[in-house]
Structures are given as structure tokens and as C-alpha cells.
Amino acid sequence: MVVCSLACWRCRWLLPLLLGLAIIMGIIALAGRGWLESESAPYVHQASLWESCTRGEQDLNWNCESLMDYGWGRAAAATYLVGFVILVICFALAVIAFSVEILRFNFVRGIGGLLFVVAAFQIIGLVIYPVKFAEEIPLTGDNMFSWAYGFGWASTVVVIGCAFFFCCLPNWEDEVLGNIKPSYYYSSPERAPYLN
């Protein structure tokens, strides 16, 4: 029976696949209008990373204000977007690294270091946004940071996990490349009479 873990050449695509998942969650966070929403009816407020929209209780049309008019809005969007761009670059580098037969483990460790940079940028953006939003934008009713903001944090958590695995993968170089001879364990004849 063969156990397939991250230290297995056949499973080398698991890490790039996880990075692809983080990219998808990052796209949802960047495009989603659910960073902040009204918690209950009447739904009078919703916001994305880029704009904040409000409406009256009886009004059907949203009045939107760009968050790019605020310094903190530009900072939150820029830091999250820079982290996302570096994440896409790391994904491309990971696909290249795991496509070649002779894996360069220092290269893999470099991808892990870049992923920590991605996580730092994304965390900065994800912390600036709610703190400054609550201070600068007048909120009416009960509001909550919603699904798109959650996807931003989910992407960041996946990136942090992948960063640790990319940094630790060179420690299992022989296992990944299949350079270790299998070990066979035999019990004594008294314990296993069927081997006689």
C-alpha cells in the first residue's frame, strides 16, 4: 500500500492546486459586493472593497460612494491587490517548479517566502478596511462584515498554510524525488510462523 502525502512525487500538484483555490477565493473577495452588509431588514447598506452603497428603507436604488476617495480605501485596496498579484506570480512559479523533473528546492523555498509576503500584504488590507470603515463611514442599523470579506480571509489562511509547506518541502527532498530505498520489516519466525 502506498501512502500519498505532500512528500510524494505523485502528489506534487496538491500545493499548486491549493494556490489556485486561494486565487479563486481572492477573485471572489476582489469582485464581491459583500464586504459589509446590513445584518437584518431593512437592508440599507452594502459595501465592497471599492465602494460603499446605501439606500433608504423604501428606496430600491443604491447610492454608491467610491472608497477610493479615502486614503485608507486606496491603501486597503492596494495592499490586498498587491498581495493578490504576487499570489498569481507564486502560482505560476509553482506550476513551473513542479513541472520540471529536476525540482529546484531552493526555488521552492523562495516561493514559500513570497507567499509569506502575500499573506502580510493581504492581512494589512484586511485589517485596514474594517477599522477605518467603521471610523470614517456613517453606518445605520446593524451591519456585519460578510461573505466577500470572509473569502478574503479564507484566501489568506490558505496562503499561510501553503507558505509553510513550500518552506518545509526541501526538508523532504529525498522522499519527494524517490531517492529513499524502501525499508522492509520482518518479524522473527516465532512471531510469524507463516514465513517458514
From TrEMBL:
<dbReference type="GO" id="GO:0030057">
    <property type="term" value="C:desmosome"/>
</dbReference>
<keyword id="KW-0965">Cell junction</keyword>
<feature type="transmembrane region" description="Helical">
    <location>
        <begin position="110"/>
        <end position="131"/>
    </location>
</feature>
<keyword id="KW-0472">Membrane</keyword>
<dbReference type="InterPro" id="IPR004031">
    <property type="entry name" value="PMP22/EMP/MP20/Claudin"/>
</dbReference>
<feature type="transmembrane region" description="Helical">
    <location>
        <begin position="12"/>
        <end position="32"/>
    </location>
</feature>
<feature type="transmembrane region" description="Helical">
    <location>
        <begin position="77"/>
        <end position="98"/>
    </location>
</feature>
<dbReference type="GO" id="GO:0098609">
    <property type="term" value="P:cell-cell adhesion"/>
</dbReference>
<keyword id="KW-1133">Transmembrane helix</keyword>
<dbReference type="Pfam" id="PF00822">
    <property type="entry name" value="PMP22_Claudin"/>
</dbReference>
<dbReference type="GO" id="GO:0005737">
    <property type="term" value="C:cytoplasm"/>
</dbReference>
<keyword id="KW-0130">Cell adhesion</keyword>
<dbReference type="GO" id="GO:0006915">
    <property type="term" value="P:apoptotic process"/>
</dbReference>
<keyword id="KW-0963">Cytoplasm</keyword>
<dbReference type="InterPro" id="IPR015664">
    <property type="entry name" value="P53_induced"/>
</dbReference>
<comment type="similarity">
    <text>Belongs to the TMEM47 family.</text>
</comment>
<dbReference type="GO" id="GO:0005886">
    <property type="term" value="C:plasma membrane"/>
</dbReference>
<keyword id="KW-0812">Transmembrane</keyword>
<protein>
    <recommendedName>
        <fullName>p53 apoptosis effector related to PMP-22</fullName>
    </recommendedName>
</protein>
<keyword id="KW-0053">Apoptosis</keyword>
<keyword id="KW-1003">Cell membrane</keyword>
<feature type="transmembrane region" description="Helical">
    <location>
        <begin position="151"/>
        <end position="172"/>
    </location>
</feature>
